[in-house]
Structures are given as structure tokens and as C-alpha cells.
């Protein structure tokens, strides 16, 4: 059995609640770094102690007609989150919910998407510091 480290994307970090997603789109704020957009909102997860982040990913059907292509980019977004989630969690005092969007028809390479994800998370950290 592989020991769980902080570099995983466990089930409790996945954004699945319809009410949380509705909250995100009604009261959420966003930051962008082309081609990515991060929508976020403060949230209360109730009974889940110590939980700081829940994340969902989305790729537009308008940009990628084939499910194979959408699934590939969702997999890439989840992986870039997994590798860089320490940038998000180290700057949070309260729990947040996030939705990460891939918003272009361009088929970027993993390295480019990973670099943009790091820049996006840093931009989010600056935005949080400004609002506090």
C-alpha cells in the first residue's frame, strides 16, 4: 500500500456538491491567466475537519467536441493541481472551493499548462492577500 502524502488528489478534495457549485457561480470571484480561469469562493464544509480546499475542473464542450479531448485536458488540469496544490493551501486561512477552467481551443502541452497553473495560483494568492 502506498502511503498517502500531500501530493495526492483524494476524494475529499473533489468538488461534487451541487449546492457548493451553485454557490461558486453565484458568489464566486475569479482570476485568470490565459488559458486558465480559477473561480473561487469561501465555503464551510461542515463536518470535514481540517479540510481547506475542494476543486473541480471543467473543459468546454464548445472548444473540444470529442469527449476524449475534454477528458485529456481535465486529466492534465487535475495533475497540475495535484503537483502545485501547496501554492493554494499554504495561503488559505479558511476553507475555499475552486473551479478550474481550460478556456481555449489551443492544444497546449503539459509543461505550458503547468507553468500557467503556477502563475494562476500565485495570482490567486495575491488577490486573497489584497482582500484581507
Secondary structure: elements and pairs:
Blueprint: H1 18-27, E1 29-33, E2 36-42, E3 53-59, H2 67-89, E4 96-102, H3 110-131
Parallel strand pairs: 3-4
Antiparallel strand pairs: 1-2, 2-4
What does this structure look like?
The model has no long low-confidence stretch (mean pLDDT 89). The protein has a four-stranded mixed beta sheet, with helices on both faces. The chain has helices spanning 18-27, 67-89, 110-131; strands at residues 29-33, 36-42, 53-59, 96-102. It is globular. The chain has 132 residues and is α+β, with helices and mostly antiparallel strands.
3D shape:
globular
Q: Report the helical percentage.
A: 40-55%
Question: How many strands?
Answer: 4
* N→C terminal distance: 41 Å
Low-confidence stretches: none
Question: Helices and strands, in N-to-C order?
Answer: HEEEHEH
Task: Indicate the structural class.
Answer: alpha+beta
Strand content: 15-25%
> Biggest sheet, in brief?
4 strands, mixed
Question: Using only CA atoms, what is the Rg?
Answer: 14 Å
Number of helices: 3
**Main sheet: strand order:** 1-2-4-3
Mean pLDDT: 89
List keywords for this structure.
single chain; alpha+beta; 132 residues; 3 helices; four-stranded mixed sheet
Short description:
This protein has helices at 18-27, 67-89, 110-131, and strands spanning 29-33, 36-42, 53-59, 96-102. The protein is α+β, with helices and mostly antiparallel strands and 132 residues long.
Amino acid at each position: 500500500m502506498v502511503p498517502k502524502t500531500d501530493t495526492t488528489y483524494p476524494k475529499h478534495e473533489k468538488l461534487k456538491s451541487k449546492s457548493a457549485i451553485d454557490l461558486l457561480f453565484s458568489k464566486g470571484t475569479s482570476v485568470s491567466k490565459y488559458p486558465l480561469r480559477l473561480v473561487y469562493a469561501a465555503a464551510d464544509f461542515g463536518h470535514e475537519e481540517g479540510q481547506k480546499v475542494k476543486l473541480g475542473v471543467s473543459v468546454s464542450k464548445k472548444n473540444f467536441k470529442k469527449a476524449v479531448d475534454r477528458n485529456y485536458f481535465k486529466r492534465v488540469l487535475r495533475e497540475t493541481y495535484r503537483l502545485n496544490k501547496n501554492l493554494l493551501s499554504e495561503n488559505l486561512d479558511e476553507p475555499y472551493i475552486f473551479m478550474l477552467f481550460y478556456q481555449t481551443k489551443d492544444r497546449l502541452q503539459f509543461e505550458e499548462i503547468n507553468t500557467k497553473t503556477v502563475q494562476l495560483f500565485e495570482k490567486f494568492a495575491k488577490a486573497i492577500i489584497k482582500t484581507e
